[in-house]
Amino acid sequence: MRFRNPGAGLKFDHPPSIAPSINNTDARSEGQIEISAQAAVGNPAADITPQSPSEQMNHEAAPFTIGTPISQPHCFFGRHRVLKRLFNLLKTHPLQNAAIIGQKRSGKTSLLNYLKRITLTSPEQLRSGQKSDWLPQPETYRWIFVDFQDSRMASQERLLNHLLTAMQLPAPNPCNLEHFMDVVSGNLNSPTVILMDEIGVGLQRCPELDDSFWESLRALATNQTGGNLGFVLATPESPVDLAHHTGHSSPFFNIFGYTTTLGPLTDAEARELIASSPIPFPEADIEWILNQSNRWPILLQILCRERLFSLEEEEVGDDWREEGLQQIQPFIHLLGA
Ligand SMILES: Nc1ncnc2c1ncn2[C@@H]1O[C@H](COP(=O)(O)OP(=O)(O)OP(=O)(O)O)[C@@H](O)[C@H]1O
Ligand SMILES: [Mg+2]
User: Fold this and answer.
1) Is the CB of 107 under 6 A from ligand 1?
2) Which residue of 105, 277, 294 sits with most ligand 1 atoms within 8 Å of its CB, as the best mutation to test the pocket?
3) pTM reported for the whole predicted model
4) Which domains does the chain have, with CATH numbers?
5) Which one is predicted more confidently, 186 or 73?
6) Rounded to 5, what percent of the chain is helix, strand, coil?
């Protein structure tokens, strides 16, 4: 088996201590190392780590983010209990696997992004009091983000290349499942967490990701990596149901010992999000926003954006409320949950 140069022209995440070269100070503080600015288009191992346009351009973040998942840790609010449970599974050995279940727009991708970044984000880049010391040795962890909505991840070869690149292991040629298993087995020496977003898409639309692919991943996690490999999935339904519906029999979907369903934020968490407005809101408006949003983060974000806009424009009256109620219509399914 021959090896390709696994990292040429790529950007990927790994502990800063093993970084070959660093040319981005923001990224360095978060363990995200840019090897080269060259675009990775067409490269099978291209990283698909979500990065917001404002991060790429170094723009100031908007006070409220709606639509795109939260990628900057200081813009992420709440989920304290879920984070505690997840990091408890990941800070002990062997790493344990978790599934995050959530309706559309409930905050799944934002949570995966946060898991990946929070422990290596410096306090200056966080809100005051925001917890980041979830892991005893965060710099030893590797976080690998796989978004199955990215069509490149439907190709088994590209997905395996992506995993190997992020693990800093050489890519064999051909990069098939057998060779991948040879390279990874016994060679994963630091804790590695694979974050899988929209795994249902992987199961439904990617015939190359068949039962033997998932069974191999399970074998890696359970027997071949000395407890150093863990998975966190985000999905609209439970992994076992998902496998069942999509005609997969793979026991991979039975290894998720902890499952949590995303709900609204707590009252205190929702109030913290509202209080992040650069112009404080009147108390009556805060109560109205809490009631109308039922503390779902996306609804809070929309209503806060509308209130902030009306304050910035020095509008009088409650027209912003009407506008806000219209703007939350596409996400109203959350209120039925
Ligand atoms: N913890 C959070 N703090 C602040 N805002 C959040 C948080 N979680 C989600 N949001 C808000 O909700 C929106 C949707 O979040 P996200 O994209 O993560 O949801 P999702 O469940 O992955 O959605 P989809 O099902 O469409 O993939 C974000 O754009 C943001 O406005
Ligand atoms: Mg998502």
Assistant:
1) yes
2) 105
3) 0.85
4) 2-261 (3.40.50.300), 267-336 (no CATH)
5) 73
6) 45, 10, 45
